[in-house]
């Protein structure tokens, strides 16, 4: 639960910047909306009291080629699925293809403890990858770096470092995923199940969302790899509180990534946490901006800790895609990867091609990992010192950008 004080403070922070006309899929009205109420493309359509959106159709011929392609492929998707829900239920984002920029998560253990100071991802990587077509960077961070005291305020020194990196990503025109890399934990205790309270967790997201409330290229990755949760329902409550906090902070237009259980397992989502997570609502209207967040590695125990890959595991993704289509939802593969071996070049290429071919149900991928990882790290896609890319990037990732 959010405290009354916390909610009141957040609402007063919900100031929107006035814009010219809203673009297709942009907000164009709703309670407390002070931006444009006209659309440069599409028609301003009331979804609920809080959210009006510029949607395709009704006299506008101004839709871009990209939008038309997306809309028509969604129409195909809808017509072949059991539902006739219109394409506007989807997020409206382009296909995301990208990479993790690790460093601020270094020494976050899987028990949610942290013992380091973080390492800034190299600035040059953002332009390096963007020049090849990357349009999404996931930037993990330790909760303890962002708010050194649980439930406390953002550390300004860390914020300066983190935001500088985020801005380097945004400057390329890419989307940037803010990834809280804490496994649903703080110091070996689970959120809302003996550890941090849901209010402490929501407070972190309220503060971060306030900073980026007006930036449509920010994506909120509200938790990396929850695992070994005693129960799913408390986690779903915490997810709902984080979503509410982000919207109450004024960040009403952005995508929020919703992780399930079992290390954000792509295989587990449809049967484990997925059914309960379908009940999470979005104060900004609809659920098109709540995108599921899944991970999938291709080594023998699916852990991403071995050099050899044993499968592309397309069957797991086909099951996931079927489930998403039945529920008119999207997911992103925000971690996958492989070792520097021919088996991984082949399997990762095949997996990423499947993700690519299943857009928009699969919104896209961000590969693990570049950033401050050494080129010798077994899953590294960090560019070499001479500016060249490794074979995993060249053979498996680049063909799917
Ligand atoms: C938002 O709208 C509500 C209901 O109309 C109003 O009470 C509140 O003062 C508004 N908040 C802001 C920040 O404008
Ligand atoms: C978390 O795990 C790390 C690594 O195993 C360990 O050093 C640390 O003591 C653990 N933290 C807690 C609070 O148990
Ligand atoms: C595919 O992944 C699942 C877990 O996500 C695993 O249980 C299964 O063994 C994998 N299939 C192959 C062929 O490795």
Automatic annotation (TrEMBL):
**Its catalytic activity?**
Endohydrolysis of (1->4)-beta-D-glucosidic linkages in cellulose, lichenin and cereal beta-D-glucans
A Pfam family that this protein carries is CBM_1
Q: What class of enzyme is it?
A: hydrolase
Where do Low complexity bias regions lie? 59-88
Q: Which UniProt keywords apply?
A: Carbohydrate metabolism, Cellulose degradation, Glycosidase, Hydrolase, Polysaccharide degradation, Signal
Region listing for Disordered, in residue ranges:
59-90
Q: Which GO terms describe its cellular component?
A: extracellular region
Q: Which processes are annotated in GO (biological process)?
A: cellulose catabolic process
**SUPFAM superfamilies assigned:** (Trans)glycosidases (SSF51445), Cellulose-binding domain (SSF57180)
Domain CBM1 per the UniProt entry, residue ranges:
20-55
- Signal peptide (from-to): 1-20
Q: What is its EC number?
A: 3.2.1.4
Q: Which family does it belong to?
A: Belongs to the glycosyl hydrolase 5 (cellulase A) family.
Protein name (Swiss-Prot/TrEMBL): cellulase
């Amino acid at each position: 639960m959010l405290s009354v004080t916390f909610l009141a403070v957040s609402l007063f922070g919900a100031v929107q910047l006035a814009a010219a006309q809203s673009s297709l899929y942009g907000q164009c009205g709703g309670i407390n909306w002070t931006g444009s109420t006209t659309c440069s493309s599409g028609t301003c359509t009331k979804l609920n009291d809080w959210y009006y959106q510029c949607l395709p159709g009704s006299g506008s011929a101004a839709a871009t080629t990209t939008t038309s392609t997306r809309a028509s492929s969604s129409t195909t998707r809808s017509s072949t699925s059991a539902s006739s829900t219109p394409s506007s239920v989807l997020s409206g984002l382009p296909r995301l293809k990208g990479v993790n920029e690790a460093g601020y998560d270094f020494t976050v253990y899987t028990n949610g403890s942290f013992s380091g100071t973080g390492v800034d991802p190299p600035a040059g990587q953002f332009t390096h990858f963007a020049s090849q077509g990357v349009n999404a960077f996931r930037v993990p961070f330790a909760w303890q770096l962002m708010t050194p005291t649980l439930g406390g305020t953002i550390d300004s020194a860390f914020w300066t470092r983190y935001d500088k990196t985020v801005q380097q990503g945004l400057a390329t025109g890419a989307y940037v995923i803010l990834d809280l890399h804490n496994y649903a934990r703080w110091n070996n205790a689970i959120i809302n199940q003996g550890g941090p309270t849901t209010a402490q967790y929501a407070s972190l997201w309220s503060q971060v969302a306030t900073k980026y409330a007006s930036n449509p290229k920010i994506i909120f990755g509200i938790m990396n790899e929850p695992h070994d949760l005693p129960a799913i329902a408390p986690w779903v409550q915490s997810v709902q509180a984080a979503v509410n906090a982000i919207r109450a902070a004024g960040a009403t237009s952005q995508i929020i990534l919703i992780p399930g259980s079992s290390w954000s397992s792509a295989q587990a989502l449809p049967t484990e946490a997925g059914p309960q997570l379908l009940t999470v609502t979005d104060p900004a209207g609809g659920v098109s901006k709540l995108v599921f967040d899944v991970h999938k590695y291709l080594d023998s125990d699916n852990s991403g800790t071995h050099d050899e890959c044993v499968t592309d595991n397309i069957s797991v993704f086909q099951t996931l895609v079927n489930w998403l289509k039945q529920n008119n939802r999207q997911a992103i593969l925000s971690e996958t990867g492989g070792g520097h071996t021919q088996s991984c070049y082949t399997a990762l290429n095949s997996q990423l091609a499947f993700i690519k071919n299943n857009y928009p149900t699969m919104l896209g991928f961000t590969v693990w990992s570049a950033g401050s990882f050494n080129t010798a790290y077994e899953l590294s896609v960090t560019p070499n010192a001479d500016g060249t890319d490794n074979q995993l990037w060249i053979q498996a990732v680049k063909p799917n950008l």
